Amino acid sequence: MHPPLLTTKLHRPAPRQDLVDRPHLHHRLDEALCLSHKLILVSAPAGFGKTTLVATWLASSEQHASHAAWLSLDDKDNETSRFWTYIIAALNTVDEDLGKGALIALRASQRPPLEEIITQLINDLNQHSTPLLLVLDDFHTIRRQELHASLAFLMEHAPPHLHLIITSRTDPPLPLPRLRGRRQITEVRAAQLRFSEEEAVALFNRVLDLDLSEDEIDALETRTEGWITGLQLAALTLRGRPDAAAFIREFAGSNRYVLDYLVEEVLHRQPEHLQAFLLQTSILDRMTSGLCEAVTGHDDSAGTLAQLEHDNLFLVPLDDKRQWYRYHHLFADLLRHQLTAIGQHLGCAPEQTLHRRASVWYQDHDLPDEAIHHAFASGDTDRAADLIDDAAPACLARGELPRLLAWLERLPDGLLHRRPELCLHAAWVRLLNGRWDLALPHLERAEQLAPTAPSTDRRDAVLGAAASIRAYRAVELPDAPSAVEHAQEALDRLPADDAIGRSIAAYTLGNARRLGNDLEGAADAFSEAIALGRAADVLHIVAPSVSALCRIHVSRGQLRRAARTCREAIENLSALGGDLPPIAADICGRLGDLHYEWNELDTALRYLKRGVELGRANYNAGLLASNYVSLARGLRAHGDTAQADDALRAASDLCRERGIHPRIVNLLTARKGLLTVARRDAAAAKAWIAAHNLSADDGPTYARLETYVTLSQVLTFLSRPDQARTVLTRLRLMSQEAGCTGDLIGIQACQALALRARGEHDAAVSALADAVRRAKPEGYVRTFVDRGASIGELLRRVALRGTHPNYVGKLLAAAEAAPPVPLKPNVDAANEALIEPLTDRELEVLRLIAAGLSNADIADQLYIAVSTVKKHINHLYGKLEVHRRTQAVARARELDLL
Predict the structure, then answer these.
(1) Residues 402-420: what's their mean pLDDT?
(2) Does pTM top 0.85 for this prediction?
(3) Domains in the chain: how many in total?
């Protein structure tokens, strides 16, 4: 579903036979590699042979050529994803494994910060041990500061065996002074590129066989200042002229329009059909015979291109098969200028017609970027709008938001707001970028235009898409009733053949129903989204729908069905290309959770680690954070406490830095609370309750189920079983009403512990026995084991009652085999590393700081004055040898105090 790349951009121009050897410049470039310079910059005005120099140097050495990746840049590459996608594609011509993860991240629905993507690429480059030359030709066409900064980051951190070679008409905005100071750059400029008198003699007399005198060559060389294109233009004009001396005298004059004169001379000396071909095809950045025929309207473009190449009319072959070409950039500019001048003289704009023909050809060949570019260049914004409208659904489905936004921003506001479909595309882009304030005006305009649609079907299609957007927004709020209403309206109105639109609406409806505790309805909606997404090949809808459906099966206690759903999805996704795509990250994470529940820890960790790996590539921050939380739980059960803590911190960092979805924050909050119980750390448990403003009197919602189940366990641990029972009673009623058998099993296990703490042992055993009966068919294990050591005593009494003794025996065996959790930080060992031991009060303050409480909150929690809190904090800073809260927390973690 990703747009095709123009592979001709990745081909090094083939060197012509009629070139002057420049061994001194080749030696200069060889020396740059020997000195391990990071950058080779070939910078000079147009026509100084920059591209030719680098191309011939590479061709002169088989070793250099085999390690060289080439990319010819143009104006359309000023889009971040396109720029870096082409760089990775160029690198793949040397090593097909380079940049796979970075490319996946670029194409993710939620693209990560560019620096993180490039870091992945740098890590890949570091594994490529042999020298690697990356040539960026015509870098002056790249004008975006973000791209300059990202390339500077690559250059700064790349391994020493990567050499960046840039050709540019202007100095690139890169840290050139720093590179010069470090002696990490070789520069080749106009002074070195200019032809010397000896080279000019070689060009005119040996290569082109013009037999000019030394004085004539000196005159040309002096007036052109060694400018290679000027010399070549002069040579072309001189070929076959009987009055060479007169021409040279005139050329040697001070006429500032000499360049226009040369172009006139070159053009006018060609047959009329060649002149017309040159002018008409000058609007193309790249040419192939079929495209030229479409633009010119004449056959035999292949023969014409071959003739132009033979006659050295500034045609550059872009591949070894001589299928794609481009004009020398300066020559193309001059031809376009001439074409415009002719149009002005005739009172028309011929280039607009030519651009429109090119747009049609590119559209027919499924190259929307180029088709839209030429539509805009033709001045036909209505055609551009049509092309954008056609390409937009696929862009949205693939998550290519910057690409679509760039197109839409080129449309005049008046045109955009006359077309409801374009307004809807603009609303989707803004909403998915987190800018509802910018999305809403476009959405409202689309809804206003809907009644003017030429047919009922088209009106319904507009209103259906608008309803889908409103449903998506309502889920974000969250507003379950509105989300369900709008999503259902979308499905009722959208055309039956709009698989992409309907799959998005069905997915949104599933989330809306899940939000409202309608699990049956949510499951149906997600199943429909999966079917529609598969039909439309929209994997970015299929994968999250599968994950959501799996969660519903788990909530309803259908573990085996959830596992089947995940495995089938993984098989289907693997069948598409062998390796699992990044969008499978959440599916792997959920399958890992299921194996964790069955206490199959090795298998669980394999899937959980794969989920994190794919999550990093996909870089949906919420998905990745969720997988980190699951991995932390699996690692802890496996006894890898340090790695588990690292994973949990990674999830916390993501939540703090990215503003993660509330469901993920809730999950992370619950895991941290459980850890305080597992470690038997009463102070940390109290701090957890305070930090999250939790109370037994709250009215828990299903969206925060994990947090309130954990709250019940924390309250039981803190000897507040009455409060725990209050929370659990509400949770049990809520789960029963929603049909969430899976959640109910865990709630009943917690109820049993709370009843035991109240001294109601028989009631506790009855509650746990009921949970065991519900759990046995699906093989639950960790739901019981993770409740702590106290659950063992109750399980033994359940077995004595004769309730599934074999199954209970399996649970007891798993509990006994579980590695112990460190009960509390080893304060004594940590204090030995400090200049002065921490007091118990200082430890309490430290834990509350780590929980995120302010000085005032800490004072309230400990019933002391704020001034006293500040004194404790100052003492902490001194003993830990830090100056800020974040440093104190980091130091405490190093010492295992938290």
Answers:
(1) 90
(2) no
(3) 6
